[in-house]
Write a structure and sequence with these properties.
The complex is a heterotetramer of chains A (250), B (346), C (286) and D (390).
Chain B (H helix, E strand, L loop, with lengths): L5 H11 L5 H16 L4 H21 L10 H16 L6 H20 L7 H21 L1 H4 L24 H22 L2 H11 L1 H6 L4 H27 L9 H14 L5 H20 L4 H15 L1 H7 L1 H10 L5 H9 L2
Helix pairs in contact in B: 1-17, 2-8, 3-8, 3-11, 3-12, 3-13, 4-5, 4-6, 4-11, 5-11, 8-11, 9-11, 12-13, 13-14
Chain C lengths: L1 H26 L8 H18 L4 H22 L9 H23 L15 E4 L2 E4 H22 L2 H11 L1 H6 L4 H27 L5 H16 L5 H20 L6 H13 L12
Helix pairs in contact in C: 1-5, 1-8, 1-9, 1-10, 2-3, 2-4, 2-8, 2-9, 3-8, 5-6, 6-8, 9-10, 10-11
Chain D lengths: L1 H14 L12 E7 L6 H18 L2 E2 L2 E9 L4 H13 L5 E4 L3 H14 L2 E4 L14 E3 L4 H14 L4 E7 L2 H16 L3 E8 L7 H9 L4 E5 L5 H10 L8 E5 L8 H4 L7 E4 L8 H13 L6 H20 L5 H8 L3 E4 L2 E5 L6 E13 L2 E13 L2 H6 L1
Parallel strand pairs in D: 1-3, 1-4, 4-5, 5-6, 7-8, 7-9, 9-10, 10-11
Antiparallel strand pairs in D: 2-3, 11-14, 12-13, 13-14, 14-15
Classes of the chains: A alpha/beta (250), B mainly alpha (346), C mainly alpha (286), D alpha/beta (390).
Chain lengths: 250, 346, 286, 390
Amino acid sequence: MTVMLETIALEKRFGGLVATSNVALKVEKGARHALIGPNGAGKTTLINLLTGVLRPTAGRILLDERDITSLKPHSRVKLGIARTFQINQLFAELTPIETVALAVSERLGCGKNWWRIVGRPSQVTDEVVKILENFRLVDVMNERTAILPYGKQRLLEIAVAVASAPRVLLLDEPAAGVPEDERHMILDIVARLPGDVTVLLIEHDMDLVFQFAKWISVLVNGVLFVEGSPEAIARDERVRQVYLGETGHG
Amino acid sequence: MSQQPPGEEIARRLVARASWQPLEVLFWAAALASIYVLPGRHLILTEIAILGLFALSLDLILGYAGIVSLGQAAFFGFGAYAAGLLAKYDLVTEPLLALIVSGVAAALVGFVTSFLVLRGSDLTRIMVTLGVALVLREIANRYAWLTGGADGLQGVEIKPLFGLYRFDMFGHTAFCYALGVLIVLFLLARRIVHSPFGLSLQSIKGNPVRAAAVGIPVNGRLVAIYTIAAGYAGVAGALLTQTTAFTSLSVLDFERSADLLLVLIIGGTGYLYGGLIGAILFKLMQDYLAALTPQYWPFWIGLLLVAIVLIGRERIMSWTKPIRALARRLDWRRSTTAVAVEGQRP
Amino acid sequence: MLTILFDGIAYGMLLFVLACGLAVTLGLMNFVNLAHGAFAMAGGYCTVILVNRWGIPFLAALPLAFLSTAILGLAFERTLYIHVYRKSHLDQVLFTIGLVFMSVAAVDYVMGSSQVFVQLPSWLEGQINVLGVGIGRYRLLIIIICGLLTLLLQFILARSRFGSRLRAAVDDQRVARGLGINVGGVFALTFAFGSGLAGLGGALGAEILGLDPIFPLKYMIYFLIVVTVGGTSSITGPFLASLLLGVGDVAGKYYMPTLGAFVIYTIMILVLIWRPQGLFARGGAR
Amino acid sequence: MRRLTALKAALAVGLLGLTSAAWAQDPVKIGLILPMTGQQASTGKQIKAGVDLYIKEHGDTVAGRKIEVILKDDAAVPDNTKRLAQELIVNDKVSVIAGFGVTPAALAAAPLATEGKVIELVMAAGTSIITERSPYIARTSFTLAQSSVPLADWAAKNGIKKVVTMVSDYAPGHDAEKSFSDRFKEAGGEVIEAIRFPLANPDFAPFLQRAADAKPDAIMVFVPSGQGGTFMKQFTERGLDKAGIKVIGPGDVTDDDLLPAMGDAVLGAVTAHFYSADHPSAKNQAYVEAFKKANNFRPNFMSVGGYDGMHLIYEALKKTGGKADGDTLIAAMKGMSWESPRGPISIDPETRDIIQNVYMRKVEKKAGELYNVEFATFEGIKDPVKAAKK
């Protein structure tokens, strides 16, 4: 199997605080890879490093063997890394149609086209239709995003990332805050992601993690603590302790 | 609506964003009609058209890309002086050509200074843009041998438009010219904001972090629209010079940028017509009040501004709701055009 | 040239007293009060009336100018500003510019459009010579008063109970209310105090800056420059920025009279490019 | 019966054809464009008060035609001026555009005066070139050179050898600087430094310090009307009066409007100017009294510009029998001379500029108030800049 995304001795410091320490993560092509860890373990920092929102203090990031450490966020998207956000980062004033059309246009390279009307190359429209249908957003597609129910916003959050047709998709707690009865929608969507897309999932919800992941990495205090198959992680005493310690607190 | 298959509905919705509303058609029909209906008011109408175009330039960056600027006068003034100098030294004598050259020159200045506004909060941007305008004003003041300094640029003579239409004293040529330029640039702006590029600007305004995560080069897009808007402001400034055959330091004044912001806020941002409507309201209001009380008109303008805020712009907008609702009902193409558009597709 | 340095410091101090109320409303209350200069103007005209018409001694008129402007500020805050705190910045700009227009026209109507001056006592006129350096008496007075004010202000904000209440109210209004702090009252007092300072600045500045109805428009830019260059997270920021701008402006005009106002604008742009949050902002947070 | 006569009269008038009498019933409209708001608002107020006073004293009908003044505020922004002038000419069909607080405003309107064949009557702006910009321009204010040249003569004769000039950086300032310096150097004086400061300038301190450091005998200063107060305040604050440096200049710096508020510090300042509220003539005493009664401030040189401007229009209309087209009216204005509150004045038939006395004045206290007291007169001064061009 080839490695799709790899970090080499990745490190990020905020002043004196080490948020990511010497992380060597390998995500294989087409993987269903989960990254878990207690609160404050540095999971979101790692995602921000991978997507270029933050610059690492040291270390390198490789995408399909290409060094992307110094690339800007939008250039990484062009190379095929897309992400979702733990807390919705949507365009409150745009409708789902517009939001998805935006991402699709950008991917098809007509984002800087200032002459054609959005959606005029029918390729864009076709893709938008496909995504909105896939993500069950058709019924709310003309509402302003700001007034969508939370579950729908969450779906849109993932839909936008998928609209970039990524090779690597980073999902940052996709089910966070979604009420129990809508959670199955998210699970369903995640499960139905195309097989050739490499997925790195950050999640607290262990049901979702164990249902989805074929491989799990555990991050504690910015350090890659342990890796293994779901079965191995489930059996691992140290992991259990880390988590028990956390749940004991809160 | 829901009986249509979703695919068609989505395609229709995307295209419908850019379709012409009846109120819009009415607006421009009225504007064109004013050429014949209000021949005695062409002078102030010319000013309104110029101010409207200028406000449009601010709307492009503020209403669509979220860049607050208190320094659009920098580009307005640059365009104004460029047009003045081109005419004075007979460099480009055809007004329309000179207008384009001036606009491009102002856009270049916009491009160079755009890098200053990429960082920082609204307040920082306000002050940096303001600073740029003030520095330009000082430069224009300093190099009096070129610009005339505080006395204004004298001796500007504007040749007839296309070599045919002289700029008459009644301002008829000037108004037709200014209105024509406004319409062309408005259509262009309308096209721009409904394009994927325009949509990406709106997304940047809404959420720059996510915009970058979708693959949008945020800074690049902001530089682009800032440059375009500077060009618009430059054309507006050049129009002022060409229609008055004169320009002075006041084109670079802080007050000009401040008034512009007022005009746009009064009219509302982010739907292109805000600047135009604001320009009409502001100018007419000012003209009316200044005729009524030449000395104390600022008091009444101030009172109106305060009242607008205290009552709430949303509430005032909501008073126009019945009109807008009526207009929507009158939209005869509401369901038919979409089908027609769809039908043309292979 | 020490005289130039001295003049610059006095000018800077004056700018500070005029602008620090703006820094407080903007930084702490997150309110864009472009009408700040109108309160300064009110203080100036108040002093003119007190001293020239009623014959009250100049030094006694200063605290009165402070008080009356503060009361004026309080009245405006309670009746008008209070409705605008929650509106967008653009609305605030619209609203306060409206107030400026109104104040300009109203003062023009009541006081006339010519410049007015405070009749200074003779002991404040002229220069004294200290070790060969010419020191303007009036400017010395400005430096003393403004210096004391700065210390007082620093003390109030950093040490006193009111200061901590204000900071609490700003950090989280809900929590502050929960703690039994009267947030509205704290804001009103702060606003009144800021206006009062502006009024005092106007009273002191009338002599040097000239006082006419367009004062609030003429100096709006300067106040904004002080606040943005200094940053709004502390009082020391605007203070140092005022000094920097005062000295820079005066020295610039002295040594390069032909460049004049370039200096002050260029300083601002460079500073803002270098540190968008202001030169003396702490850490650049927020 | 009465109606019948009226009808007859109208018929008669109609039969006279399209001559002056044909529109004798229409009012003569005068567009008064002044800065009523903004920096120069005090100029606008003074002129307006002068104009109003003249109409009050002389009635609003001349040569059978009613005079209608339309006031517009241009805030001293030239493109406003231009648009307002254009509207006045095109829509209101005015016969005269008057006012013009600042030079750029007057220049901006000049092409319109030419094209519309309408009189442009300059009541304030003081740059020499203005009247050359259109054959329809006449001026009832002054030119800077008019005061500066006599001032240079006086200074050279009165023991002043080294001068620093300080002027606002715009055309009138340049005029004042140049005409003073040229004449002063001719007379053997020395201008050791020429300082120009921005038109809108908050703090004179650094410029004054620079001037002081050059150690001149006197500082020749020109600031536009309204800024003189701040300048004089800072001059004394700097202790320059005590250092023996004199202030001389065209009279703008000791503007009558602001003078009472400037304080004793200005005592002794010597200026050359065409008008002082203290001018010792019966005409002026009556003028000042009437002016103060109608307004709560003292008239300054701007107000007489407005007052005399109205006089010029009235007299020209009397001469033309109410005919108000540009060519007739300007011809009537040329060479007109009369006694103004400022003294005897006339309109130069060649340049359409004003010819007037320039007085040397010194600030003194009279009855507890400061006045520019005249002590010497230069008679019948033409604009030296235009005179030099011939």
